[in-house]
């Protein structure tokens, strides 16, 4: 319904919001499409840095839940000031949005948690923003490998005050974990 290049352009807070954060190329926009069953709703790309604004998607009319697709963290090839601007935009939104019920922090199954993910988690802990880790691209690794990453990531997540204890492994490609993620979104938005 709206795209916000800076915080000045945010839509009025009208309903519970759920945000999707994570490193560039982790699959935020793809996951949003899988969740909504709409292939081209959020723009995706193989090139990191596709999403450059906060993009708001209303679920229901009048909106019951608003999903927020965000620019990625840690995109080294982009101009430094641009990366900085995105990071401030994302962090300020996550810290300051009263209607935000949960941030899903996406982590690539193949890579596990990286320093920048831990930074986001620390920031969310400090700001007492509810968040939940989601593994993406589960189709890209073997089930045995996925089980290991899931265990390691769950263990790290347990050390973080504001993190939800349960992790969800997903694939936007095969649809695995999407039903669980929808349930988590509903729980977060309605509780
Ligand atoms: N195999 C597989 N590929 C995926 C999956 N999710 C995303 N991708 C691919 O990963 C690339 C990046 O996906 P995006 O959804 O654009 O990632 P993003 O996190 O929104 O990236 P930025 O907007 O740049 O921060 C695209 O080429 C997608 O097709 C998945 O579950 N499985
Ligand atoms: Mg994107």
State the main characteristics.
191 residues; alpha/beta; Rossmann fold; seven-stranded mixed β-sheet; binds guanosine-5'-triphosphate; binds magnesium ion
Write structural notes for this entry.
The chain has a single domain (2-190), classed as P-loop containing nucleotide triphosphate hydrolases (Rossmann fold, 3-Layer(aba) Sandwich). It has a seven-stranded mixed β-sheet with strand order 1-3-4-2-5-6-7, with helices on both faces. The radius of gyration is 15 Å and the shape is globular. The chain is built from five helices and seven strands. 35% of the residues lie in helices and 19% in strands. The structure holds guanosine-5'-triphosphate and magnesium ion. The site of magnesium ion (MG) has 5 residues, from helix 1. It comes from Sphingomonas sediminicola. Necessary for normal cell division and for the maintenance of normal septation.
* CA-CA gap between termini: 24 Å
**CATH homologous superfamily annotation:** P-loop containing nucleotide triphosphate hydrolases
Number of individual domains: 1
The radius of gyration computed from the alpha-carbon positions, rounded to a whole number of angstroms, is 15 Å
Instruction: Quickly give the CATH architecture.
Output: 3-Layer(aba) Sandwich
C-alpha geometry: globular
For the secondary structure, the number of strands is 7
- Write out the distinct hetero groups bound to the structure: guanosine-5'-triphosphate, magnesium ion
Largest sheet: 7 strands, mixed
User: Residue ranges: pLDDT <50 for 5 or more in a row?
Assistant: none
Tell me the helix content.
25-40%
Strand order of the largest sheet: 1-3-4-2-5-6-7
- How much of the sequence is in beta strands? 15-25%
Structure annotation, total helices: 5
**Average pLDDT over all residues:** 92
